[in-house]
Request: fold
Amino acid sequence: MSAIVVKDLQKVYRSGAATPVHALNGVSFEAPAGSIFGLLGPNGAGKSTLVKILGTITTPTQGQAAVMGFDVVKQPLEARRRMAVVLQQTAAETLLTVRDNLLIYAYLHGLSGREALRRMEEIVDEFDLRSKLRETVQELSLGTKRRIQVAKIFMLDSPVIILDEATTGMDPLMKRHVMDRLRQEARKGRTVLLTTQVLSEAEELCDTIMILNGGKTLASGTLQDLRKLSKQMFRVNLSVAEAREDLDELLRALGPAELKVEGVTAEMLFLGEEAALLGRLAELARAVTITQFEVRGPNLEEIFVKLVKDA
Amino acid sequence: MRGIAAVFYRDYRQRMTNIAFVFWDMFVPLAYLALFGSGFQQIVAPSFQVGGQSIGYTAFLLPGVLGMITFTVAMNTSWGFFMDKDSGIFYELLTYPITRPQILIGKIGFNVLLSLMGAALTIALGGLVMDVPVRWVTLPATVVVVAVTTAGWFFLFSVLAIRLNRMDSFNTVTSAAYILLMLVSSMFYPVTDMPGWFRAIAWINPMTWQVDALRYTLFGIGASTTVLLESAAFVLFTIVCLAFAASALNRAD
Reply:
């Protein structure tokens, strides 16, 4: 079953006489239950607009979106009952204490006083918030505010979690913890939709990735699927036995798209057929003693950059 | 109901972080009654005729002061939407499993209590200290009018607070509305004694409907049919404003 279904979603912002802005232009996807779905794209790609539509903050100009089978336009309350949303903008009740922030969030999601308290107790240690419970949020750092915002969603059991660049501003340890926790939640059957600009995060976490640009889908699929789109791109790392003055020249003769030489190591990016590349590297091995050698496909960042540039 | 209760609690906790603000909501109208009311009573006359009844100016002004309380509390509560926008919680709130009307009703809930507290203080000051002849028996009706009208004004101002991006624009519009609605109404003077153009505007001014209803429940002044019509008009005004405010929340992006 798909937890999130988006069909031909379009959103046009019209502001007076200004040219209409097509924030989303026919985006479609399905996120299966228990999966982590990543939305990637440069600024202005339409990621946040998509999150706002799924979160029922705004309505689409055309198309449909459903959360756990509930249409976000026709049955918004039912859809909202099944999701917890972390928006890109830091959101916290700044005048209230951390404790009030957590409890009020739980009350607003229908939890009883006792249950809210129990769940708050469960997450305050996990998110290192116990010492800050009595402090008002306005006294806290941006990172801590973000931590509260993300911690809140783990107080709920909603089947869908939507996070719009949620780990922005978090320290690396907490970011790692949130990622682990999201993986756990997905294993339990919760569906996670996240937008991010940290591509390594998406690469590590997401089962399915969609790349948006200018409101349109550039590519979508598993990381393996996306790699196939850039199958003629290879990154080669090698080390040679001893430093040579002509190493740079020898490597440049292989025709890499990028080359970086540091002492006895080199990093190259090749575009073209894999067989031809291996032939050229074999020739190189006759002239130079290669001690370490690695060829790998593109990482998500490289795929992303290529797709966005090509678009 | 749980959604409304949760928003009510949220607003209570927020408002209680600034007691001075709450005190100011109560104090200004009380000062109006004590200073403006008794001052004018000295200047105008000990009493004058309104709707066939003789009444002192302090008593005449008292319902208007209750109107000011509801208006001020509603204005300050709707201003809270700007705080929510600043803190980023405004958009997050829209993703919570509560309806837009529940947000609005919950938000005004605690503030209706503040209005009622302010009204109780004002009536106590008038009735017990300033010898205003309050009809204590119809006080429950006054409570209803204060509650409904606080909500009505709040829903009206919420439309502006949600739709406007700039707080200074909101302050300008609401301040202008405050002055105009107060001055072109039956708050400070009997409408029947005013020029035709003034009467025409005053009769379509919800502030007149509110003050007339309060004057009737507090002192029995006014024709019951007119007051009934005005009260019905205010209820309708409240429902329409609630619908507009809920719609504004639906299009808050």
Q: What stands out?
A: Chain B touches chain A at residues 2-3, 5-7, 9-10, 13-14, 17-18, 83, 86-89, 91-99, 250-253 (CB under 8 Å). The mean pLDDT of chain B is 88.
